[in-house]
Amino acid sequence: MRFPRPLLLALLAATSLTAQTPSAPAPDITGKWAFTVNTDAGSGTPTVTFKQQGDSISGHYSSQVLGERDFKGTFKDGKIVFAFSADVEGQQFTMSFSGVMEGVDGMKGNVDLGGMATGSFSGKRQKP
For residue range 112-124, what is the model confidence (pLDDT) as tens digits? Predict the structure, then answer.
């Protein structure tokens, strides 16, 4: 059976509109990142290493001011949240980060030093 050309083109167009495009894989933030942190209390350039398993993340925060800190958090729908306990000169607090991805190799967001200071952060993935 032969279809008239306009009908055939219409059928092909309708078929391509209903075909589903596979979604892109969710980004994986695993790796070493260089952060820039700016707060009311000062600024720093820590190194942050992430390990991602599904929506859960864990990792290590390393800075001259806060030293070495392990953390846990979540990464879902391009949004990242993580926190760790720290102390400066005997003052204990929880440092919390919440942000969003900027492409596959960048992120930015807000940081809270247990209510004592707030600020922003940005991170760039380091090439292996």
Answer: 999 999 999 999 9
Q: Is residue 25 part of a domain?
A: no
The answer to whether residue 21 sits within a structural domain is no
Alpha-carbon separation of residue 118 from 14, 52, 71, 111, 112 (angstroms): 53, 26, 19, 6, 5
User: Mean of the pLDDT values across residues 6-22?
Assistant: 45
How many domains in the chain? 1
- Whether the pTM exceeds 0.90: the reply is no
- CA distance linking residue 47 with residue 40, whole number of Å: 20
* CATH number of domain containing 48: 2.40.128.120
Q: Which residue, chain included where needed, has tokens 């607090």?
A: 93
